[in-house]
Write a structure and sequence with these properties.
The complex is a heterodimer.
Chain A (H helix, E strand, L loop, with lengths): L6 E12 L2 E13 L4 E5 L6 H9 L11 E6 L2 E2 L5 H8 L4 E4 L3 H4 L6 H13 L3 H14 L5 H4 L9 H13 L5 E5 L7 H18 L2 E6 L2 H7 L2 E6 L2 E7 H6 L4 H9 L39 H5 L5 E2 L5 E2 L16 H6 L3
Parallel strand pairs in A: 3-8, 3-9, 6-7, 7-8
Antiparallel strand pairs in A: 1-2, 1-4, 4-5, 9-10, 11-12
Helix pairs in contact in A: 4-5, 4-7, 5-7
Chain B lengths: L17 E12 L7 E12 L3 E5 L6 H8 L7 E6 L2 E2 L5 H7 L3 E4 L13 H11 L5 H11 L4 H4 L8 H14 L4 E5 L7 H17 L3 E6 L2 H7 L2 E6 L2 E7 H6 L4 H9 L39 H5 L5 E4 L2 E3 L18
Parallel strand pairs in B: 3-8, 3-9, 6-7, 7-8
Antiparallel strand pairs in B: 1-2, 1-4, 4-5, 9-10, 10-12, 11-12
Classes of the chains: A alpha/beta, B alpha/beta.
């Protein structure tokens, strides 16, 4: 596809100041999303997926260092260095919107939900209150809130978790953004409600040609709902490409191990799950070579010395590994090149 | 309800050996100035010796309340709970305490469910000392070793351990008292996938090595399928379907079970699970008319569903379902034609 990407992140690096020292939370991330596409960002806690998403919006926590490297281009414009004022006036909420995991804390608890949707429209779109209200009620209907006129008047605590998340989505869509960032939007919800919310994203994406960056820890969810995926580990993208292909034929040992660690409905009961030994590295003290090396069954001396670059692997998709998995049938523990170089 | 003695579909041959059971279990929570909220509506449940019984459902379905009531924390509002042939409900706290060691709980939040001011070793030693074990320290270290917490880590306090390690300590503490039953309430929900796998494998191993029977409560159907022998699906305080783990996932008979299964993200979804109608949300209380609690969302609902509560009845050996119009076996859950 040769469509101009709406969002292009290049070599993004973000560091946090922590009591243990400087933590390299995002470590050279590249991402690109085209209009109308859903890009999944998947990884475990501390992999840097949420921080990457927040960096795009310029809403990093206070202990993030000001020195930020790399580039975040949105619709052709560099937005990484924009001032807070400009971000707020032109970009955030207007052209890039965000949906968070916990709608209860993201919504203002003492303001009626209707007003919360009306305010940004009046500020960004310069329309009058009456017009904004009509639009808000229309939006509530579009996101599947029953009885929108009534619900316009309620407070967030009077709604269920699923409905609050729908309100968040209505709020996010109010100014007709071009990019929607959804950080674990359904993690706090029940599965049936999760399916409804994800269906809603799908509908909006088709109807409005909206680009979505979907952050989740759930590999199956990402594989089912995204066009492309980037798998993150210790602040880096270790594998990226078409979501279905990444799920069916993972190239990076981490992706494959993660997939095999997850109980599957296809396996009979009492299937022993794959475990990943050890823990992710301390971000304040990243190893010299590949950050997954000490947990990887394919590790060789090369992995300890040289950090593998993100380059096309056996399946054609970019992967950051010296000994990628050749195909879906190759077991994780075996790699011919790795066996030859095996050190211990 | 019928006895489970006729349940050949389940691997467990000792179908009669019930280690923990409840009849007509009702749990209510008081609401100031209002009628109490009924979380569990008179369910019957039996845990066989050596099995893992999965309790699955969405928030508010009463799965945790059921788990808690089974160990008398707090005791159920109504109903009978039997530990082997000992009746637990009606016992005083003092009498109950003697039997507490038989029933252990493992909670969702691994860090806050451990005493923050004690080391892992002290946490596991405490029940052993209480039970007058001759060598509590040695035994505690042995148990910690068994769950994969080494001597150096045993000196740490919960906040110095990871979530997975804390859950291992919880398991060691539970097993220390040689219980016959452990109720696991969402034990892996707060953990990352790779750590979750370690804890699930550990639970399976400890269950075999220590002759445990488990009640495993979770909202995650894939996790429940993997660990359970039998699965009970709950909706609004009632068991709507109960069957062998493989059976219930292969042939869901209740429309709610089918909806749950179709909602799980799966990149290669089996076709028969596609396009299950998914509308509406769980009501906070069942229909006032006293019909099936799922009727308002169910695509197969007819008049009878709105007025008559379907009983949990055995539909094939070992497979019980509470539905007036169960999904036919082998047919696609084409929900429009079910009536």
């Amino acid at each position: 596809m040769t469509v101009e990407p709406i969002l292009e992140v290049k070599d993004l690096r973000i560091q946090f100041k922590t009591p243990q020292g400087i933590a390299e939370v995002v470590n050279g991330v590249n991402l690109s999303i085209a209009p109308g596409r859903v890009h999944g960002l998947v990884g475990e806690s501390g992999s840097g997926k949420s921080v990457t998403a927040r960096a795009v919006l310029g809403i990093l926590p206070r202990n993030a260092l000001h020195k930020r490297e790399g580039s975040v281009r949105f619709a052709g414009e560099e937005i990484l260095g924009l001032s807070e004022d400009e971000m707020r006036k032109r970009i955030r909420g207007r052209r890039i919107a965000m949906v968070f995991q916990d709608p209860m804390t993201a919504l203002n608890p003492v303001m009626r939900v209707g007003k919360q949707i009306v305010l940004p429209m009046r500020r960004h779109l310069g329309i009058n209150g009456k017009e904004a209200k009509a639009r808000a009620i229309d939006l509530l209907g579009q996101v599947g809130i029953p009885d929108p006129e009534e619900k316009f008047k309620v407070y967030p605590h009077q709604l269920s978790g699923g409905q609050r998340q729908r309100i968040m989505i209505a709020l996010a869509l109010s100014c007709d953004p071009e990019l929607l960032i959804a950080d674990e939007p359904t993690t706090a919800l029940d599965v049936t409600v999760q399916a409804q919310i994800l269906d809603l994203f799908d509908k909006l994406r088709r109807e409005r040609n909206l680009a979505v960056l979907l952050v989740s820890h759930d590999l199956s969810l990402i594989a089912e709902r995204c066009d492309e995926v980037s798998v993150m580990y210790a602040g880096r993208v270790v594998e990226t490409g078409s979501a279905i292909s990444t799920f069916e034929a993972p190239q990076h040992p981490y992706t494959k191990a993660l997939e095999e660690a997850r109980p599957s409905l296809e396996n009979p009961p009492h299937t022993v799950l794959r475990t990943i030994p050890g823990r992710p590295p301390q971000l304040t003290d990243l190893p010299h070579g590949c950050s997954f090396a000490n947990r990887c069954p394919r590790m060789t001396e090369l992995c300890l010395d040289v950090d593998p670059p993100l380059e096309p692997g056996p399946a054609g998709r970019p992967v950051a590994c010296h000994h990628p998995v050749a195909g879906p049938d190759e077991p994780l523990g075996v790699s011919v090149t790795a066996a030859k170089e095996r050190i211990s | 309800m019928t006895d489970t003695a006729t349940a050949p579909a389940v691997r467990d041959s000792s179908g009669d050996d019930i280690v923990l059971s409840a009849k007509g279990l009702v749990v209510e929570y008081p609401v100031p100035g209002k009628k109490p909220v009924r979380a569990v509506h008179g369910i019957d449940i039996e845990l066989r010796r050596g099995e893992t019984l999965g309790l699955v459902g969405e928030s508010g379905c009463g799965k945790s309340s059921t788990g808690r009531a089974l160990v008398m924390l707090p005791p159920p509002t109504e109903g009978e709970v039997m530990l082997g042939d000992l009746r637990l409900d009606g016992l005083s706290q003092k009498q109950l305490r003697k039997h507490r060691k038989e029933l252990q709980l493992i909670f969702q939040d691994p860090i806050s469910s451990l005493n923050p001011r004690r080391t892992a070793l002290e946490i596991v030693m405490e029940p052993l000392t209480f039970l007058k074990h001759p060598k509590p320290k040695e035994r505690a270290l042995e148990l910690l070793q068994e769950v994969g917490v080494d001597a150096a880590m045993a000196k740490r306090k919960p906040h110095q351990l990871s979530g997975g390690q804390c859950q291992r300590v919880s398991i060691a503490r539970g097993v220390a008292q040689q219980p016959s039953v452990i109720i696991c309430d969402e034990p892996v929900s707060a953990l990352d996938v790779s750590v979750q796998a370690q804890v699930l494998n550990l639970l399976e191993r400890m269950k075999d090595e220590h002759d445990l029977s488990l009640v495993f409560i979770s909202h995650d159907l894939a996790v429940v399928k993997n660990i359970s022998d039998r699965v009970a699906v709950m909706y609004l305080g009632r068991i709507v379907e109960l069957a062998g783990s493989e059976d219930i996932y292969q042939h869901p008979r209740h429309h709610y079970t089918a909806l749950l299964l179709s909602s799980i993200p799966q990149p290669n979804r089996p076709e028969k699970l596609q396009d299950v109608a998914n509308e509406g949300e769980i009501a906070t209380s069942p229909a006032p008319s006293g019909g099936c609690p799922f009727a308002a969302r169910c695509p197969a609902a007819t008049e009878i569903c709105r007025t008559v509560m379907p009983p949990l009845a055995e539909i094939t050996p070992g497979h019980r379902v509470a539905c007036h119009h169960p999904i036919p076996v082998e047919a696609e859950p084409d929900l429009r034609s079910a009536s």
